[in-house]
Amino acid sequence: MAVIPRPEHPRPDFYRPDWLNLNGIWKFRFDDENVGLREQWYKTDAAFDREIRVPFCYQCAESGISDQSYHPRMWYYKEVEIPAELLKNRLLLRFGAVDFFCAVYVNGERVGEHTGGYDAFDFDITAYARPGKNAICLYVEDFRDCSQPRGKQLWKDRWFGCWYTPVSGIWQTVYLEAAGNIYIRTAHITPDIDQGTAALSLVLSETPSLPVTVSVSVSLEGKPVRRQTMTMSQKRQRMILDLIDGDTLHQVVLWTPDAPKLYDVEIELDQEDRVFTYFGMRKIEVVDGMVLLNNRPIYQRLVLDQGYWKDTLLTPPSDEAIRQDVEMTKRLGFNGARKHQKLEDPRYYYWADRLGLLVWEELPSAYEFSDDAVLQLTETLASGIDRDYNHPSVIAWVPLNESWGVDRIYAHPRMQAAAHLLYDAVKALDGTRLVSANDGWENTKSDIFGLHDYAETGEILARHFESQEQISRYAHRMAYTNQHESTGQEAFLLTEYGGIAFEDHNQEAWGYHDKVADAESFYRRYQSLTDAARAIPYCQGYVYTQLTDVQQETNGLLNEEHLPKIDVDRIRTLTKNPEGRYQ
Q: Are residues 467 and 540 in the same domain?
């Protein structure tokens, strides 16, 4: 029997026991002539002329196709044996991500459509599915449209700059999930470490069957902490979980990178539905320009991580590969990662939660300012917040990067308004995390004042940041827009620097400034730059570029296979603070 790729459950933070992984071999066909809908390919597999290995995109080697030419329309088809026990109540068909637009058919009937290349979605297919063999079909469109959130996916025929091979179609796990007749759509948990409580906000499926009884069990490292019940009389309701129990003398245990303790949660809905999730008791805020984790200052040592793999592109090849990346990030001395231009596979955040890594989550950029771009960015951001709300590792959101897609934001009122909209969306939908609104330069309303500076030496970098008042003189573009200035409350971080590459024979490969000839030259420049960044007295942390090589950009600490190019222990020593500054 063929091995199913990515067989693990894709959402440990939202898990139902009865599910079926649909990864593996699907039938596939390009539709360059745009005839599939007219010829109704969704009704039969007769038109399909090849196979693809899901969840890998057709452009990558692991898909079995490895075709990097432009095909804006494509189809997927799979016959699935659905066990009768999955059809007892409601059956949900879930997709981790499909880039960019897709229409979904079950047994020849259209069940829904979705737009957005990076966010998860699902359909209730109870009315369309039957015990035994079922046909699932997808029609997908992915055009070279720069108004859609693309991230680092190029829109030309070859690699250029810091943009890479695009990813079209299914690129995260597809699965079926059995839910109750009444079922839980979302379960967001908001910790309050100062009160010793956590607020559980539930959203139920559309149902006329209210009220229902909800039972919630909380445990820590296998030991029960609290069981509470409530009656839900409406679709949305909030429960306060009291985690301080005088009878058991349980005291709140905080989540930190050094001690990533997690509370496990089981939610039962009138014996109709059961969901498992978890959360961490942690608090992140900026006070007077200082970042506080759990009411204590924390200095962030982050690495830029683009989440590309040589043979699988944006799709991590395995769960073990994800875990190894998180472990390697920590081994290199970093306490966090800025996941660049990508809503990452949820398993990454799971391992960051479990192993203790701070994460900045970043919205993939569009590159053309329009009404559609603003709408699609907002929808992708909202969907990402909804999916990743419970992860304690995620401490910040980056809606915009280096004015990409808002290139005239310095003086353009609508582009500035778009930045404000995205900032306010994070605060309205979440409110527990920091925001770096336009990371890099031309800052607007923001919690973090993030600047990028790829100075060649530590001496040059130090000169650029001698005075906080003179930062704008050395920024690649203006530090703030014409309508904004520092309030003194934002936390300043050097959010990109470094980018050192080794000499090689590839003329298209690049890093920042001259390439280094050997490891010792690399260590000297790395130490010079990192010591200079650490010495900026008003700086709350830094982001080194970058964790891995990505195609033509060869300035990673690891190569494209995610293997070290340098001595890991030596880099860890240089990365960690030798002076004992707050951690």
A: yes
In a domain, 271, yes or no: yes
Residue 15, CB half-sphere, CA atoms under 13 Å: how many? 16
Alpha carbons 481 and 296: distance in angstroms, whole number:
31
What is each CA distance from 10 to 13, 243, 379, in whole angstroms?
A: 9, 28, 22
Helix H or strand E segment including 217: strand 212-220
Q: How far is CA 513 from CA 163, 456, 473, 528, 543, in A?
A: 19, 6, 20, 15, 18
* CATH code for the domain in which residue 333 is found: 3.20.20.80
Residue type, 499: G
Q: What is the pLDDT of residues 209-242, one digit of tens each?
A: 788 999 999 999 999 999 999 998 888 888 888 7
Q: Is 499 helix (H, G, I), strand (E, B) or coil?
A: coil
Looking up residue 53, the CATH number of its domain turns out to be 2.60.120.260
Round to whole Å and give the CA distance between 194 and 179: 35
Residue-range definition of the domain harbouring residue 271: 184-279
Indicate whether 245 and 390 sit together in one domain.
no
Half-sphere exposure of 60 (CA within 13 A, CB side): 25
Residue 520 within a domain: yes
Residues recorded for the chain: 583
CATH of the domain at 204: 2.60.40.10
Structure tokens at 427: 């605060």
Alpha-carbon separation of residue 308 from 320, 342, 344 (angstroms):
15, 10, 10
Same domain, 272 and 340: no
102 within 8 A of 139, measured Cβ to Cβ: yes
DSSP string over 166-195 = ---EE-S-EEEEEE-SS-EEEEEEEEETTT
- Is the same domain home to 167 and 218? no
Tens digits of residue pLDDT in 113-141: 999 999 999 999 999 999 999 999 999 99
Q: At what angle do helices 568-575 and 519-535 cross, to 10 degrees?
A: 20
| DSSP category for residue 254 | B
How many independent structural domains does the chain possess? 3
Give one DSSP letter per residue of 104-171, joined into a string.
Answer: EEETTEEEEEEE-SSS-EEEE-TTT--SEEEEEEEEEE----TTS--TTB--SSS-BTTBB----EE-
User: Is 408 in the same domain as 533?
Assistant: yes
Per-residue tokens: 173: 């796990």
Per-residue pLDDT reduced to its tens digit, 136-182: 999 999 999 999 999 999 999 888 889 999 999 999 999 999 999 99
Strand order in the sheet with 394-398: 434-435, 394-398, 358-362, 336-339, 300-305, 539-545, 491-498, 448-452
| Beta strand ranges found along 428-490 (DSSP E) | 434-435, 438-439, 448-452
Query: Which of residues 259, 279, 299 is at a domain's end?
Result: 279
